[in-house]
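tokens incoming
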């Protein structure tokens, strides 16, 4: 059986198979009519193949192999590559027409975090973005249903694709992690063990411990910087069967980090339904958020202990430090609760809060 290399053919995969077939006929001084007779096919079919109006089917490829001595595999491969090149060309044209879509995403941030590569033009950047998002086109993306209950500032609402990009980042991080099946009872126990760790340092070590402990209870915890246009703190999500807490470390203080963590944990333990939550700022008349906040504060500081402390009304630096130590929690959490209840003004004890930063070895 002859093949293309034996015939000296070096195909250009962007060239229509009909053009190669026409050259083969010319080299052999064979007419289309003669080829049609040799194949037992209508002349119209041969003419349509040469003009690119008809494809070379596997059956036709075998017939060409016998009539011309050029392997059927060559013809079918040529046809496949050619049709693929046409499809890709059309896809590129479609991307060029929809290139404006990239402007709805925080591309600069995505590039800075090395999540995508900026292309030579917007269409190329769009192709890279779609691959990272795991979807085929902007229209397909717009049809995706989002189960997340978005609560946030007007700027947050105005940038839904920034939010979606941040969530996608969390999905990709979570996909690399392993965790046991979600166990609500065990997760509650883990949270009580994490509570005194709010006083520990350094943050990178503490966060790794939190990740490992939560994974044992079936919860994946990931940390992803917020992207421009999001203004969010965290999310509690169900990705397939995985329970995920995603945090942005937006405010970069221990008080905000731990409050957000326990708040998202409260969403996962609500028991009402497996629903996704993305948290920016507190909105009025939101029972799910109120419940999650209450869960977080009650876990951080037992209600009776806090009530006694608040009633004493001594919110000096020494008293706040002593109360935090007695409760084995970070001082910043006590300050945060007092600020939330309007018992101290934000600037009053701010210096006692600790700043935290992203672990340098984050994914």
């Amino acid at each position: 059986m002859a093949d293309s290399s034996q015939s000296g053919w070096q195909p250009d995969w962007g060239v229509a198979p009909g053009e190669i077939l026409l050259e083969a006929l010319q080299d052999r001084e064979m007419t289309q009519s003669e080829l049609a007779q040799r194949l037992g096919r209508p002349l119209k079919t041969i003419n349509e193949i040469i003009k690119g109006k008809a494809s070379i089917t596997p059956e036709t490829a075998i017939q060409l192999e016998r009539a011309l001595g050029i392997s059927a595999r060559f013809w079918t491969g040529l046809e496949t590559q050619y049709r693929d090149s046409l499809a890709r060309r059309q896809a590129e044209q479609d991307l060029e027409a929809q290139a404006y879509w990239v402007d709805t995403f925080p591309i600069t941030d995505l590039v800075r975090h090395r999540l995508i590569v900026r292309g030579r033009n917007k269409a190329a950047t769009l192709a890279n973005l779609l691959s990272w998002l795991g979807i085929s086109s902007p229209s397909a993306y717009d049809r995706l249903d989002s189960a997340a209950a978005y609560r946030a500032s007007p700027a947050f609402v105005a940038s839904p694709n920034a939010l979606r990009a941040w969530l996608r980042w969390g999905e990709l991080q979570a996909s690399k992690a392993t965790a046991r099946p979600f166990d609500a009872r065990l997760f509650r126990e883990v949270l009580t063990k994490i509570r005194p760790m709010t006083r520990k340092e350094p943050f990178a070590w503490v966060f790794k411990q939190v990740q490992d402990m939560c994974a044992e209870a079936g919860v994946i915890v990931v940390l992803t910087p917020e992207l421009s246009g999001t203004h969010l703190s965290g999310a509690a999500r169900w990705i397939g069967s995985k329970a995920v807490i995603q945090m942005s470390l937006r405010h970069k203080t221990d008080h905000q980090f731990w409050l957000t963590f326990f708040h998202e944990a409260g969403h996962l333990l609500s028991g009402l339904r497996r629903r996704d939550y993305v948290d920016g700022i507190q909105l009025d008349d939101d029972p799910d958020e109120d419940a999650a906040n209450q869960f977080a504060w009650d876990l951080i500081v037992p209600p009776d202990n806090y009530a006694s402390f608040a009633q004493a009304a001594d919110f000096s630096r020494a008293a706040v430090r002593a109360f935090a130590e007695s409760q084995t929690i970070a001082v910043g959490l006590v300050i945060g609760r007092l600020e939330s209840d309007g018992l101290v003004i934000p600037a009053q004890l701010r210096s006692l809060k600790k700043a935290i930063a992203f672990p340098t070895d984050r994914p």
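note: The longest strand covers residues 234-239.
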